[in-house]
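Box 3.1 A note on notation
Throughout this textbook, protein chains are presented in two layers. The first layer is the amino acid sequence; the second is a token string describing backbone geometry. Keep the layers aligned when reading.
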Amino acid sequence: MKRLLSALALAAALGSGGAAHAGLITFDNPGLVDIDNNTGIASYMEAGFVISGPATSFLPLDSALVGGFDATPFTLSLLGGGAFGLQSLDVAAYDLGFGPGMLSMIGLLGGAQVAALSVDLASAGSFALASSWAKLDSVSFSATGGFALDNISAVPEPGSFALAGAGLLLLAAARRRR
């Protein structure tokens, strides 16, 4: 019984870590965009993630992130680095005066493309992403028209592993008990 309680306590500790929780980037009350005057690179942080790219490539507004001012890409990555899974996001056209175009999303792991999605901004919507978006170190966004992103749901991968490990510990403890 003591081992079972120890295993449960360990599983709870592993499963309750902050990295196990999905981040939801909503842009509901966006903070400041930090712009490096030497490089012109802008950074915006929310929910444990950072969006970065040329200062002219994106702008967080109240309730959405707008991009597509030019074809210059910007990236989403985990604050401090590491792998994460992109689960879903909302995409909409944003009128910049030159009509809707195409949004290109590229999932990268170690600099190599592991996932890609092209969205016609004239018929954009909510997207639940496939398992190919499960282990990434960054996602690149670029477009040929104005677009808005919202409700970006992503989960850090170490959190997923911690939850899986906690489940395995519980199974092992239950099996040993029998």
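The chain has one domain: 21-157. Residues 4-20 have pLDDT under 50 and may be disordered.
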